[in-house]
Batch of 2 targets.
Target 1
Amino acid sequence: MNRVLTLLGIAGAAILITSASIAQTLNTVKTRGSLSCGANGQLPGFGLPDAQGNWKGFDVDYCRALAAAVFDDPNKVKFVALTAKDRFTALQSGDVDVLVRNTTWTSSRDTQLGLNATGVNYFDGQGFMVRKALKVNSALELNDAAICVQQGTTTELNLGDYFRANRMRFKTVTFASVDEALAAYDSGRCDAYTTDASGLYGVRLKLAKPDDHIVLPEIISKEPLSPFVRHGDDQWFDIVKWAHFALVNAEELAISKANVDEQIKSINPEIKRLLGAEGNFGEQLGLTKDWVYRMVKHLGNYGEIFERNIGQGSPLKITRGLNSLWTKGGLQYGMPLR
Amino acid sequence: MSHSTVSGGARGGGIGAFVRDERAPALPAPAATIGGFGWLRANLFSTPFNALLTLATVALALLIIPPLVRFLIIDAVWEGADRDACLVSEARPVVGACWAFARDRLAYFVYGSFPIPERWRVDVFFVFLALSIIWILRIDAPRRDLAAWNFFVVLPSVSIVLLSGAKLIGLAPVDTTLWGGVLVTIVVASVGIVVSLPLGVLLALGRRSTMPAVRLVCTLFIEIVRGVPLITVLFMASVMLPLFVPPVWTPDKLIRALVGIALFASAYMAEVVRAGLQAVARGQYEAAAAVGLGYWQLMRFIVLPQALRVTIPNIVNSYIALFKDTTLVFIVGIFDLLKTIEVARADPQWATPVTSTTGYAIAAIFYLTFCYMMTRYAMRVERRLGVGLGR
């Protein structure tokens, strides 16, 4: 009997330790000396190791920004490559501190899974790619088209919804893998290929003649991609949430990697508050005053991170579109720091 | 070749009959049975069915080999800085394998994300491992008694220090999340191979034991582990374990995968060895008992040498399967060779229609080479031990 009690005691203690350590993510990260970040190891532009094995990408830079905010060193990140299947379990179990892996913000993920989405860092949605020679300029002109799509995905379902809603006829040609679907499209079996717009730009480069294909402007589904953290640690939730807002605000205030050292001397009170020359907003989060300065100094503002990884400075050349600042007709809007 | 030596001269039957007393010069064998043509006829076209098979094989080879050679060598791109080199252009209407991509990414395929200034440590590990393997496997190598100690004690401990680092001797620690490529494939495969044989032998002996508790435990272990897919074992080890234990107790991800693979391989090995144990005649056990050998002496000197000898083909078979199963560690986010290739082929810098094919060709060549070497070694051992001669 005694032995049973001891075992129960150990198990109970273990549960306590687990929940305690989950509630103190910032402390855990500081003690460990590095941020553990769940990332996608295979999505060009968002998360992918390069020839030297360094992780590069839009989502990856968000992890690095957090590390810069906490440690003033964007390299203090341990990247954990996660698949679509194990990403949430890895976050729930505490294997990673934050999940930045092109994950769509949905209600069930935000509630049932015990996670919190921290804010949309990339507005994605399903798009179409067609041959230029087809002379199609809008998805609404795709009546009677044969469309290559990956089997069993939400992409396939959205496609059906869109065509039915617009009273158009279509023929899907489904494949188990992206590669097969793409090869079929390239060989001319389909008129169009559809997947998330962010992915379309990446796969276009795999075609024999990428320049012969265009991505149509229509986005037919909502895929707001957001970093995720666990329920139950509001401090950490705030840090990840405000890191995104701060990066967007930095772009809006034209604070860039190059000029951040001059901008910190600016007389504009908004810039002063953001960069920590005035007020103690970083300390309220449990970080230092200069946390935004650190992020921008090491990685640049939202726009720079975007252009470097997926925009005009990258092979993908994705246009800002929905991800432009709200002042430029997009949806990226940083809440005010004050 | 013997032609008649007596040939009738005068067939009169009289005294003066001519008897040839020397051998006539041997006639050459019929043209159809000698030389290349004869060999062909005897081996490839001996029956209509055989001829059909030969022709089918030749046709198949003609169908596969020339395009393969053309893709891998003749049309291949050897030089280039990025994807433009491997794209179809006016100067290059047909593009084969993009070896420029492989050259650019070779270091990544071998070391993964291992920090560049520390990569010499991986090289030292590879050399040490290769020498140790040669030492323990070559029959004519000197001091083979020490080779086993080196392989099972010195090599693993030195490798751990070398690869993960030790502050005491000035080697910077390298987190296992940074390991990748061939390094991970070799580490996972070697641990699986080295652990599974001894553990498998113990499990097999346990399963045949007369002690009910031991037998029950071993049988349960073997049946449960064998009855569960490897992916499930890895997934459990990687994803579920951290849910049950606090983060401080959670072992490293690579170690979790290594333990999973080692246990899995041991369960399979146990059944292979058990088959060998059953092949040893009962008389052997009785004779050994009769001369007064104890259980462990009986096993060590009489039964196991015979049992392992007959199971060599099966053991190597398991090893080859295990070597290729190591690719499953990518499921839990560990970057083995195949995963590094998957990653590299996704990179827009090299995204072309031939990049994926080239990447998979590299993987195929790598695995084929290693598995072939294992097979060759096993064949040599079999010949030397004369397996199958008496059976």
Target 2
Amino acid sequence: MGKYLRCFTLFFICMCLLTGCWDRRELEERASVLAIAIDQAEEDENLFKMTVQIPIPIKIAGSSGQGGGSNADAVKIMSATGRTVTDATNNLQMRLNQRLFLGHTRVLALSEEIAKEGIHDIMDSFRREPQIRRLLWPIVVKGKASTLLEIKPGLEQIPVVFLMGLIENGMKLGRIPDQTLGDYFNQTSNVTMEPFLNYVEATKKEVSWKGVAVFRGNKMVGILNRVQSWALIQLRNEKPGGDIVIPLPNTKKGYVSFRPHFVKKKLMIQEQGDTKSKGSESFSATYHCELQGDIVELTEDLKIPPEQFIVQMQALIKKEMEERAKKLLLQLQKQYNSDILKLGLTLRAKHYHEYWKKHNWKEDFRDFPVRVKYTIKLRRLGMEMQ
Amino acid sequence: MENQQRNFGTWQLTSIMISSMIGVSILTIPRTSTVLLHQMGWISPILGCLLASLAVAAIVYLGKQFPGTTFVEFMPRIFGTVLGAICVFLFILYQFFNAGITARLFGEVVVTSVLPNTPLEAVIITLLLLVVFLCCHEIEVVARVNELLIPFLLLPSLLIPLVSLMNADWYNLLPFQIESWTNVMKTGLNTYTLYTGYELLMVYFAFAIPGARLGVASMTGMSFALIVYVITVVAGIAVFGYEELQRLVWPTLELIKVTQKTGWFLERFESAFLAIWVASVFTTIGNMLYATIFSLRRLFRKGLRFQQITAIVTMVPLFFLTLVPKNIVELFSFTQQFTTVGLLITIFIPILLAITQFIRNQFNNVREVNNEKGGT
């Protein structure tokens, strides 16, 4: 009798406890969002328009026999408006048969317009939502953000997968900075630096990386074009950036292309006991940047001995890079007044008492003297002798 | 009473100590330690450790003075019946409340981060049922459970912060300087709670095998906890920066979420971490409640049956106790207030006990010497 009772109790307990997870939702019961785009609504300035991209599992490759079918069907793009992001999500949910699931979101597209107004209010819901991963990529899109989700790249069935590939590959090549949502959050909280995000332009069929969008606080203040962005990631992340194409002097249509492979950066902060400005030490920063790389293209023969050629090219590239960096600093300091170089972090870390406590970096970055010195190490000339 | 089986080895004692100390607080420590100290936050676990080590030393001393007895017996012996009884009572009450708060914090983490639709009650009840099950057994089971679970706790708690250091910015840890010493003291006093759990040794030392090295066990335990905490705080500061840490409720969980390297086996590691962490919280709460209930049993000089009934009965008020804080803000302020009380019970009482005992020993020695002199 006792044995039966025991068995029964055990059975009962198992029935109660082993029912599985309370929050269980099967994969097919979820509408997994791969990308979110946030725009201003056309009809009302105070409303947000949220666009999401949801893949349709059945239509995705592998389903044989459908070869040549239209790619457009592999994803569903929906948009809804609302006063806040959550409001828009709710409105969207009301039009879906399954529950929206944001755990797989990889891209968050923001329109340039909205970024310029400030994205503090938008980001709050992304900070709070536990499903949102800090490793997703926020991207500022020229024009309307929804265009980024509507591209039809042809190479991939799902546009976002294409976009992810583009960024990921760019990151591996060292040409596109890896700027995640978590990085953005850290940079906005950190008083020593300002955030930046990748900036892309999307057309009907294509998307292309245009550079980075510079922020000050939560507001976008401007963009850096590709060339400047590459200079930025050399100085900031020690990533090589893209090939450097320079017109050859004293030729008609001659160009030389330099491909940096390795970057080493050293930031030196000098302290000069400047007597002119009444005893207050004046600080200045110098970036020493070393680029190692090859010549990959030379469209006109210079007809000079190889030894001289190397020296000349190194000088040429050095001059070009220093000019680019100068332009970058000019833009960052005078135009945008936004320290995305992480210079403030180094200053705070190394010269806390002498500099950091006496200055308001948010304002003083503008006038901080920064120099950039490049060292070019030309290693190889490709498969050519010269 | 003193003829019980004493079969806890040194390693078992160490694992009991480590798993009682490392519990919920590891999830919040990067934030709590940087509130006042900013980039120097990693100092605070060291300070907390120094503070707690005093008490641990006291407990080890007591353990050696009274082999085979728990605090229930030696507290009245040192302090006298009335004062001793009050101490015992306070201690039991403290363990009870501490277990309650830990269970609630555990529930909050699970509900906010993983299972938003699961009622908090369900999470807590499951945990408490497990603990009741543990409490229905003899004390060797506790040692074995701890010994069994310790590798699952050791490895990830070291591995995760170390791996996350890959995307760290070391300049976040600088400048190396302290703004105000009062803040350092304040944080030190607050963060010693990271190490609460060592006071349970006052129970478990009673079952050490004669000859087990209590000092070694507690030193290993303390230093391991210290290393884990310091690494976690350093990783938190280096990865997020102290400003961002202030905005995160469970910084360590976020740390795991951003720890992902493509090509590594560590993608989406947070669910694995939580699974391991559940085990570590279970051992924390289990050890605490077992100590509570076991000391009640010792107090009333009853057998295992009494212990089983008490376990089941005490779970009911404990469960309702966990539901007292109305929201997460209130919960954190409760925890804060509880820290102050805990300081009295887990630091001052053991130290006072040890000092009293030490003085008493000295007196006795003097008397004996005098007696000997008188005898000759």
